[in-house]
Specification:
Blueprint: E1 5-10, H1 18-26, E2 32-36, E3 48-53, E4 61-68, E5 73-78, H2 81-95, E6 98-100
Antiparallel strand pairs: 1-5, 1-6, 2-3, 3-4, 4-5
């Protein structure tokens, strides 16, 4: 989506379980749709996740995708700038890594 706000997280470690991102963004009782490549609900090795708040508006969503595997670089995007920033900050807090405004130059 060309209208999304985008940040990148370079070299994160183990990620939080996908549902913990939704808990952080919208609260534990939030009713969400999710999709991604977690092998089980508490997987910390996922590299793709999409979360959409069912009771929210069209901006209440976040998508995380890998743009590089070695080093791991995650693209975090949402139509809502604040959601992008909050999701990136939470992922960095839990998984470490460096938040970037632009994708890193990869060899």
């Amino acid at each position: 989506m060309h209208d999304d706000f985008v940040l990148y997280l370079e070299s994160p470690g183990d990620r939080p379980a996908y549902y913990k991102i939704a808990d952080y963004l919208w609260g534990k009782a939030a009713n969400i749709d999710s999709d991604g490549n977690s092998s089980h609900p508490d997987d910390t090795q996922w590299t793709e996740v999409s979360l959409i708040l069912r009771s929210g508006n069209e901006r209440d969503q976040v998508h995380v995708d890998s743009v590089s595997v070695t080093p791991l670089v995650l693209e975090i995007r949402s139509p809502d700038e604040e959601i992008t920033k909050r999701a990136a900050a939470y992922l960095q807090e839990v998984a470490g890594g460096v938040i970037l405004q632009k994708p890193p130059k990869l060899a």
